[in-house]
Amino acid sequence: MVFIFVVGVTYLASLALMTPYLQTLMGYLVITAGIVMGPRGIGTILCMFIVGRLIGKVDTRWLLVFGLGLTAFAMYDMTGWTPDVSQWTIVSVGFIQGAGLGFLFVPLTTIAFATLPAHMRGDGTGLYNLSRNIGSSVGISIVAALIVENTQSNHASIAAYVTPFNRAFDATAAQSLSPLTAAGRASINELITLQSTIIAYMDDFKLLMLMSLAVMPLALILRKPRRRPHQRITAPSWSDQRNGLLRYREP
């Protein structure tokens, strides 16, 4: 449940960050933002097909580690993004992150239900989806709150150095950025807000990267799924049909 919680945090929280990042900071249209984020889903779909063939041949725990590694790498690359980042970088990194999620979903589901008896799989499915939804909700709430808080704190820290008494600022600032005029102060405030927001996004991406790295060692201590003999479904008796039940018997 810890893993699916983290997957919910990193997946939907990163999506919640990318949408305003592309539209607000980079000025992308809604359609453009959707196009550059589309390869993330393509990477997830392709790797889910690939990992389906690898399960049974490769230890499922190592597939989880690989998926977490891809996700952490994508988040690490995003910590260095600025509004000048190219569309190709956004597309390629999004594809890598989607590939990492593809390597997480299928093995995680396999491990989660490997030890559950058949009569408890319904409850397990509910708990599994609940953990993912809670992780998504908590993750989005945390990163959104951190964006606001870090933007304000970064704004205060940067603005402290923008004064007429800062010789370094006076030597590099143009006349239009002079804090002695109303237009200059407005331009300076807009520039500081932009830089503060960029730093806040970097901090959020770094947090998601650290969360992915933190759970990687836990994947190795999970119980390795064991193969069970194939189960045969027998024809239900009249009483079972009346009660809407289906019994499984071992061959």
UniProtKB/TrEMBL annotation:
Pfam family, one: MFS_1
Gene Ontology cellular component annotations, sorted alphabetically: plasma membrane
Localization per record: Membrane
Annotated TM spans: 28-51, 63-82, 94-118, 130-148, 205-222
Keyword set includes RNA-binding: no
Membrane protein topology class: Multi-pass membrane protein
Protein name: MFS transporter
